[in-house]
Design brief:
By secondary structure, the chain is mostly helical. Helix content is 77%, strand content 0%. It starts with 6 loop residues before the first helix and ends in a 16-residue tail after the last helix. InterPro entries: MFS, MFS_dom, MFS_trans_sf.
Amino acid sequence: MLFNGSSDDDALTHDLKPWRKYVILFVGSWMTLSATFSSTSLLAATPEISHDLSTTVTIINVTNAFVLIAMGGSCLIWLPLNNIFGRRRAYNGAIFVMLACSIGTAVAPDMESFTATRLLSGFTATYLMVAGQTIIADIFEPVVRGRAVGIYIAGSVSGPGIGPCVGGVIVTFSSWRVIYWVQVAMAGLGLVLSLLLVPDIPHKLDDGYDTKEEVIPSTRKYIEHFNPSRIFKQFLVRDIILVYLTCGLLSATQYGLLTERGGVRLPKDRLNSGLSTLFGILPISVLLYAWGLQKRFGGLALPLVAAFWVGIGLMGTLSGLYTYTAEVSPRERTEVICGKYVVQYTLAAGSTAAIVPLIDAVGVGWSFTILMVLDLLGGLFILIVTGFTLPWRKSDGREDRS
């Protein structure tokens, strides 16, 4: 699938000064950090939360899995709102809902309200990541887009790791509710920064809708926006679904753990950049982490160092995958990225729900060995995607060549 940076795409990248682009990149990365931080921050406080809300740790863990499922389905709600009201309004609206739900969770008096507000917050998280990623794809030129996406996904990779650490410190010295007040502060800061610094960036190539056009005020027109087929049809494209599955398998490990060629730019080239981390750094560090805990060697230092390198491996691999999904189909960019998160967080939810019973059954070592094998399976998917010659051109905008 060819991509050489079409003239339309280039027009979107040259209107902003470089410093403004990196400010927008920071805001997007901050909101991604906030969204992923909220998905894991309570893990260290699960016993305290279950005691305070008169429930069990198992129930809390199940709600965590449902929050990840809600994150996966976020775009099915917010993408239509994005198309109806425009990306900037939808983006800021999602941040506001996340802020309000974080306040609701912090003051929740019982398990029912705690679960409801967490699920509602989860329904905003993935859209924030999708919108941020599509904005970055719109404002950065292809030659620097990979670097920008690498910086951006630092938030999505570090958030799940930072969350339990911060949550553990907070619950040691204070109430678990303070964790959610921290999330309120993070979302509030992100909302202020977004309102002040992120402009309304056109994205005609994203989804085929021109947000500047007046939407016909008919019920049928609004309902059409909520048709999810434009997202799910991306699952029929072999290369895209293989990349989706690889992202999902990597997320299972993540949540379980807690450029040019002849003038033609190929989105597939992005995938090659992560092969060394996927087949080298990631499996070695996962195995050292797991078996170090299983066999009790290396003390505390080994799992800490290994977990750090797991993060490096995930970030190095996901950077190319994220950039690929942003470039492979410019005219359906938002739908492709949304589909990725549906698969990614569905598998992450399965990992969250299954990892503790699996560890109880076979131990830490074999549990993460299974996850490592799944990661390598994802690597084989990437080899399939990158292992073919230049494909034929298509007329649907899935390839652009100037």
